[in-house]
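Risk register update: the risk that structure generation would not scale has been downgraded. Supporting records follow, first protein first.
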Amino acid sequence: MTWEILTGLMTLCGSLIAIFKIVAKLNRTLTSLEDAVHNLNESVSAQSEKNRIFYEKIGDHETRLSLLEVSEGRKEIN
């Protein structure tokens, strides 16, 4: 085995190690990003449910105000 072949093999191994290191970091980052998106999706779903409840309460409030306005209008007429 000559020095040129040994140098070539060492360069090839070093390149492969560098590539695997980059792939491992990328995989870790993508996994972390996937978890963050999943948590964000759960938060948005929970907030949507809270918003629905608030909208129902606001709708009920508007109905009560309308009924009060109608009853106040009848009192003013009489």
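Supporting record for the second protein:
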Amino acid sequence: MQLESGAEGLFFITMKFKARIFIRLRESVSDAAGNAVMANCNKVAPDIKVEKLRINKIIEMLLEAESEKIAREQLDILSDRLFANVVIEDWEYDLLEVSEHFPDSAF
């Protein structure tokens, strides 16, 4: 963590990150929505045979934190308490440090 001085005294310089959180139903949990979509795949695309289909969630976000360690700690909390139902879902994420000029359109 770096300190800078400015007109209002000392302040922390933050780092900017792009996070992509993947939330998946556990293998032991039946995916009713996935099963319904899979049942109709052969009607829509008859030239392929879908053997397995699961519907998952991906959450993408841009965030700022004082360090990668803090960003990861906070993503762990968000994933456990807000994004995933940990009784039936597992989660993992990718975290990439980006420049302060990282365009929102590159999301």
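The chain has a mean pLDDT of 90. On this basis the risk owner (M.S.) recommends closing the item.
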